[in-house]
Write a structure and sequence with these properties.
Arc Repressor Mutant, subunit A, 9 helices, 2 domains, alpha+beta, Jelly Rolls
């Protein structure tokens, strides 16, 4: 069990926390000592969690909501690097590199975050190599996810990327599914490497594959049709739609 005696979490948040490799199985007293606050942060949409270039090294566990990590170029242009949701951990690479924050983190919905003290976490890793291996495994999973995301952007057209995004929100890859878009369409479009207008057109093209859109509500008549779309060649797509 994690530090239930002191950290104030909802039951489902405990279950989530205990599923995260970085912290699952750690003694109660250790988790309590690592946590900067015994009550997780409740953040409103648009809250900046940390800024690119900041030197602090705290690690943040997302318990609920969505947070975008992005870099700002010299011209002020933002590039989304990652979209983090419940169960994701932020700031591990910054802690290990010790070169300041590599990205900015901003909530794109209301969010709930548990903050771990970076200095205490680094000290504990020096005493416990297993904890360091857990962090390395967590970072490897993030790299793998980002690699797959970049591959999808390079190989898929806009409707296929949109189909893949919707499928990732569905609990099953067969049968009907009703979902809600988790955050603003403009953010989704940027994350998928397209303009908002292109995202809207992509959703419209998916009507031929049984997708009905009502504002932020999406009804998919058969998710398998979207799975099939992501495997289609350029000549096969939208024939007869």
């Amino acid at each position: 069990m994690l530090g239930r005696k002191t950290i104030q979490l909802e039951a489902e948040e405990w279950a989530l926390l205990e599923s995260i490799p970085l912290v699952c199985g750690l003694p109660d007293t250790l988790v309590s000592r690592l946590a900067k606050e015994q009550v997780p942060l409740r953040l409103e949409k648009g809250t900046v969690l940390f800024q690119q270039g900041q030197t602090e090294t705290d690690v943040h566990v997302v318990l609920g909501g969505w947070i975008k990590l992005f870099r700002t170029g010299e011209t002020g242009t933002e590039t989304i690097i990652r979209i983090a949701g419940a169960g994701d951990v932020l700031g591990e690479a910054d802690l290990l590199l010790g070169e300041g924050r590599q990205t900015c983190a901003e909530t794109i919905t209301q969010a709930r975050v548990l903050t771990l003290d970076g200095q205490k976490l680094a000290s504990q890793m020096r005493r416990d190599p297993v904890l360091g291996l857990r962090m390395a495994a967590s970072l490897s999973a993030q790299v793998q996810h980002l690699t797959k995301h970049v591959e999808n952007i390079k190989l898929f057209d806009a409707p296929q990327r949109t189909a893949r995004f919707l499928l990732d929100l569905c609990p099953e890859q067969t049968g009907a599914c009703s979902i809600s878009l988790p955050y603003e369409k403009a953010v989704i479009a940027e994350w998928l490497g397209m303009k908002p207008a292109s995202f809207s057109r992509a959703l419209a093209r998916l009507r031929g594959f049984g997708v009905t859109v009502d504002r932020d509500s999406i009804l998919i008549s058969d998710t398998k049709r979207l799975v099939d779309l992501t495997h289609m060649s350029a000549d096969e797509k939208f024939q007869g739609c």
